[in-house]
Write a sequence for this structure.
């Protein structure tokens, strides 16, 4: 049972790191402010799906 909780904790940590990376990259991109806000909200409210969508469709750094 402990391994299951450890694995879920690790998964959650990895999702958090990926989302922070996506948000920082979005903020640093040349996208308009409105698009940045929409992407950040998508990533924040749907962490896994938002990150995957950002990975394929989101704005990139400068």
């Amino acid at each position: 049972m402990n391994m299951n909780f450890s694995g879920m904790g690790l998964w959650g940590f990895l999702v958090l790191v990926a989302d922070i990376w996506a948000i920082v990259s979005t903020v640093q991109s040349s996208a308009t402010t409105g698009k940045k806000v929409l992407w950040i909200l998508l990533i924040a409210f749907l962490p896994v799906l938002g990150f995957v969508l950002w990975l394929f469709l989101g704005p990139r750094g400068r």
Summary: Residues 2-28 form the longest helix (27 residues). The radius of gyration is 13 Å. Residues 30 and 40 are 14 Å apart (CA to CA).
